[in-house]
Amino acid sequence: MSMPFYVSPEQLMKDRADYARKGIARGRSVVAVHFADGVLFVSENPSQALHKVSEIYDRIAFAAVGRYNEFENLRIAGVRLADMRGYSYDRRDVTGRGLANAYAQTLGTIFSSGGEKPYEVELFVAEIGDDVADDQIYRLTYDGQVADVQRYGVMGGAADVVAGYLEERYAEGASLEDAVRLAVSALGHTEEGDRVIPAEDLEVAVLDRTRSRPRKFVRVMPSRLGQLLGERGPTEPNPESEAEHMAVPADGPEGPPFPSPVVESGDEPPIAPPS
Amino acid sequence: MAGHLAGGRLPAAYMVPGTSSFADFLAGQAPDLLPSRRSLPPGHAADLAPHGTTIVAATFPDGVVMAGDRRATMGNVIAQRDIEKVFPADEFSVVGIAGSAGLAVEMVRLFQTELEHYEKIEGITLSMAGKANRLAALIRSNLGMAMQGLAVVPLFAGFDHATGGGRIFSYDVTGGRYEETAFHSVGSGSLFARGALKKLYRGDLSESDCVLAIVQALYDAADDDSATGGPDLTRRIFPVVHVITADGGRRVPDADVADLADRMLAGRMTRPDGPQAGLS
Questions:
Q1: Are A76 and B14 within 8 A, CB to CB?
Q2: Residue B53 among the catalytic residues
Q3: pTM (2 d.p.)
Q4: Among A59, A129, B107, B173, which has the minimal tally of Cβ within 10 Å of its Cβ?
């Protein structure tokens, strides 16, 4: 009879967190920025069909990094929840806070349950109000934690580097033009040097309170984006464009799937698969 | 609603990819919210609730116009003077309703959510024919109630980017869907409105002339049908008019409709039957 290894809860959670974090770090970053008229999302995403930023409801948008199939399921669930609530109550009763809560409960339950692999995703849920003070961005991590994002937020692969760039240059109450320029140059910034990302490789969307229609979400198309960005010098696509793992199956090429133990260094004990 | 989110976690059914239809999703998750899933006791329910009356639509070279009068009736009583019966379905289409008013408004809300839901899930809007078919399916599922007197008869119109022009669809209570050319009208005053448009309509009308022709037709409907409301001059209540072109849909501001109505009425002061068509 085989005896299962004992694994402390701390270790189990740490391993699950490491697993999720590694998956998220492989993708490219998404930036969300508060600006004068709402919230701006920018990500480097050469695909025109597989979106990282999407509309949920009138004033609510969703952005995600990580494993595409997982965040796409969460996005669809969010649209269904919002439409269901708006249909059974009223459009005004659909709130970003309610949606962020539902996501947090879902991600948290999945993360701490033994039977499911943790989601390798991080989300922004943004909601705009009637003026800047009412705008909200929630950041949700793979384990269901919720944080309120002030000024700007970055998630994904090179989040720290991009956030460092934004920290130095972010200004309150910027125009859309300034905010787009800042966010795009932040995404092109690396410790080795700066890169000009081609406009067609960018996915840009805004929640814009100046729109007259109730639905405030709008994608910024490449032609308009070109005008907003102005002259930027020669462009340079991402050298690691193959590294994007938007559509790889759950058992991707990165190694054995959870819950097989992944031991990086000798000082971490092997863990038993959760049963 | 709280019942749909037991424990705070999104239910598994929400996370399952598959249907892009909100009505199908509702049928699985909250069938009590679907207007067609209500069971009525036997009997005739037509006199229990107000009825909406006349809707008129006509195309012009750049798009399509739809308008509705503002009256809802219950038997011989005017139930509401300023009801709105024409609604934007999405950015490029509009739906007007005649029939049992409460049910019709609910069905419009479901249809609006259906179109928006599809657009958000799929990232692309339905084709014009696709939208018209979805509406047909919603009407078809209401047949049981229609047979008990709670019929809903919509008129659907919109700008079709594929054909580059306005299109109009009419329906019957069984969900039959019929594409109309040039103009159409539904509701109790529709015969008179259609008769008026036959004489007034031309394919080359400008947007404002097309709106005026429709306002004239609604006046003729109100003239001969007691359930259709004419312009209410003392309360300044005028028809709801929506115009849809390649740039999207908009409601014509009340002040503009009021101006048109005043012009029309000035003409009718000298000739109460309205503009005269040539004989040949």
A1: yes
A2: yes
A3: 0.87
A4: A129
